[in-house]
Amino acid sequence: MELIDTHCHLTFDDLIRDIDAVVERSRQAGVTGWITVGTDPEHNRKAIELAEKFEGIYAAVAIHPHDAKTVTDKTLSELRDLASHTKVVAIGETGLDYHYDFSLHEDQRKVFAEHLKIADELNLPVIIHCRKAFDETIEILRQHDKTVQKVVFHCFSGSAKQAKIVLDKGYYISFTGVVTFKNAEKTRSAAAVVPLDKLMLETDCPYMSPEPERKQKVNEPALLIHIARFLSELKQVDLADFAKILRATTVDFFRLPGCK
Ligand SMILES: [Zn+2]
Ligand SMILES: [Zn+2]
Predict the structure, then answer these.
(1) Cα(90)–Cα(84) distance, integer angstroms
(2) Cα dihedral 215, 199, 26, 42 sign
(3) Counting ligands in written order, which one lies closest to the CA of residue 131?
(4) Greatest distance between any 2 Cα atoms in the chain
(5) Of the ligands numbered here, which is closest to the C-alpha atom of 219?
(6) Nearest ligand (C-alpha, residue 39)
(7) pLDDT per position as a tens digit, 182-237
(8) Distance from the CA of 128 to the center of ligand 1, in angstroms?
(9) What's the first-to-final CA gap in the chain, in angstroms?
(10) Which end of the chain is more exposed for a tag (fewer CB within 10 A), N or C?
(11) Rounded to the nearest whole angstrom, what is the distance from the C-alpha of residue 129 to the centroid of ligand 1?
(12) Could you give the CA distance from residue 45 to residue 136 in angstroms, rounded to a whole number?
C-alpha cells in the first residue's frame, strides 16, 4: 500500500524533532507520501526544507486564517516566491476560521482572497480550512471560481448537505481521524456522500490521533492507515483497492512530481 497523507504538519516541534523516525514508521505502515502544510512564514520555509530533504514529502504554503492579522504585502510577495518552488504543490491552508476568531473576519476574508489570487497566478490547487464559516467560504470561492478550479476542503466537519454543496462545485473533500470518533455521526454521514474520486485522507498531525489510537498524544502519518481502513469499511471497498483509488485521486489533484 502506498497511501498519501494529504495534510500534515511535519514542521511542528513534536514531529520535526524526530522526523527520520516519523518518516520511517510511516513508510512501514504503508504511508509513503506526505504533504506538509505551512501555516506561517517560518513553517512555510521549513516545509520546503523538508520537501527538499525527503523523497515523497511535498509542501503547501500559506498563512493560516488564525494569523490573517499579521499579513502584509511583504508576507504575500514572499509567499508567492516560496510557492514557485517545484515541490510546493498547493496553496494552503487558507480559508476562514470563525470558531477561534484569532483574526478579524474582515482580515481573514481579505487574506483568503489574496491566497486565491496567488493560487490562480501559479496554477496551484488550494487547501481550504473552514470552521463555522461555511457559507462565506463558499461565497468567496464563488467569486474566484472562474480562475481557481482545484479546491479541497480539509478536515471536513460539515454535514452531508454541505458536502453535497462542495461536491456540486467540483471540489474535493478530505477527512481526518475525526471521522473515526464515536461521536462523529455527522462527519460519517458527510463521508458517506463523497464519491471515491473526490475523497482524500489526512492526519492533520500532530493533532487528533484516530481511533483506536486516539490516546496517542502526538498524532503522526503512520496512523493514517486507521483512517483509511475505517473509511474503506464505511465505503465497503477492499482496503487495497481503496488505497489505490485514493492515491490516484491525490496524485492527480496535486500533480505530485515524480509520483504515479
Ligand atoms: Zn486546518
Ligand atoms: Zn492543518
Answers:
(1) 10
(2) negative
(3) 1
(4) 49
(5) 2
(6) 2
(7) 999 999 999 999 999 999 999 999 999 999 999 999 999 999 999 999 999 999 99
(8) 7
(9) 13
(10) C
(11) 4
(12) 30
